[in-house]
Amino acid sequence: MAHTNESVVSEFVLLGLSNSWDLQLLFFAIFSVVYVASMLGNIMIIFLISSNSHLNSSMYFLLGNLSFIDICQSNFATPKMLVDFFVEYKSISFEGCMAQIFLLHSFVGSEMMLLVAMAYDRFIAICKPLHYNTIMTRRLCIIFVVISWAVGILHSVSHLVFTVDLPFCGPNEVDSFFCDLPLVIELACMNTYDLEIMILTNSGLISLSCFLALIISYTIILVTVWRQSSSKSSKALSTLTAHITVVILFFGPCIYFYIWPFSRLSVDKFLSVLYTVCTPMLNPIIYSLRNEDVKSALRKLRNHHVKS
C-alpha cells in the first residue's frame, strides 16, 4: 500500500489512553481480562452453535457470524493497545494505520448489516411463524452474510481510497490508541473539509439507514408480541431484549461519533474503548444470559465434561 510522494510521514504516533504509568498498568489488567473474555466468549458461542443440533436455526447461524465479526473486531487494535501500555513510543507505520482504518470500518459496516439481518429473522419468526422455515432458509442466511461483508468492505474502501493519497507532512500524533479515521484526516497538510463531509455522509447514511430499519422492525415485532398471549410472548421477549440491548450498545457510540465526527471531547476515548474493546465481549454475555437455548446448550456441555 503506497502513498503519494507528497507525504513525508512514514509512521504515526499513538498517544494512547493515558500518560500515567499507574493508569496504564491498571488499563492493561482490565483490558487483558476483557480481551480474553471476549475471545473465549465468542469462540464458545461459535463452538456451541456448530456442535449442537438444537442450535441449527437461522437465528443461531447469524449469531455465530456475529461472534466471528466480534472476534475480528477484538483483534484489529486491542492486541497492539495492550503491548503499547509497556512502550513509551507508541508508533504505527503508515501502512499499519491505513490497515486499521480499513479493518475497523469493514467490521463495523458488516456488523450493522448483520444486525439488520438478525432483526429481519426475528420479524419473520414472530410475525410470520408459519412461513419461517420456508422464508429463512440457509441459502438466504448465507446471502445475508455475504451482503453484510460486501457492504462493510465497500464502505471501508470508499473511505480508504481518498485517505491513503492524502499528503501527510507532520504533525503525526493521533490522540487515540488506534488510527481513528477523523483524527488521521485532521493531520493531512491540506483542507479536508470536503472529504470530511463525504465521510460523514457515507458513514451517516449506512448507520442511519440500518438504525431506522432496526427501529421499525423491532417496533413492529414488539407490537406483535404485545398482542400475543403471555405464554407465547415470554420467550420472544427474552430474545428481543438481547437483540435490542446489543443494538443500543453498538449504535449508541456510532451515532455519537457521527453527530460530532470531527470535534473530539474527553469522553470520546471512553466510547472508542467501549465499541472496539468492550462491545465484542458484551455480545456473548448478553446472548448467553438472555437466551434459554444457549443456556441449555451450555448446561449440557458442562454436564458432559463433568461426567467425562
What does this structure look like?
By secondary structure, the protein is an all-alpha fold. It has a single domain, classed as Rhopdopsin 7-helix transmembrane proteins (Up-down Bundle), CATH 1.20.1070.10. It is built from eleven helices and three strands. The protein has a three-stranded mixed sheet with strand order 2-1-3. Helix 6 packs antiparallel against helix 8 (193-227). The chain starts with 10 loop residues before the first strand and ends with a helix.
List the helices and strands and how they pair.
Elements: E1 11-14, H1 21-51, H2 58-75, H3 78-84, E2 91-93, H4 94-127, H5 132-135, H6 138-163, E3 173-174, H7 181-185, H8 193-227, H9 230-259, H10 268-290, H11 292-307
Parallel strand pairs: 1-3
Antiparallel strand pairs: 1-2
Helix pairs in contact: 1-2, 1-10, 2-4, 2-10, 4-6, 4-8, 4-9, 6-8, 8-9, 9-10
Brief sketch in words of this structure:
This protein is mainly alpha-helical and 308 residues long. It has helices spanning 21-51, 58-75, 78-84, 94-127, 132-135, 138-163, 181-185, 193-227, 230-259, 268-290, 292-307; strands spanning 11-14, 91-93, 173-174.
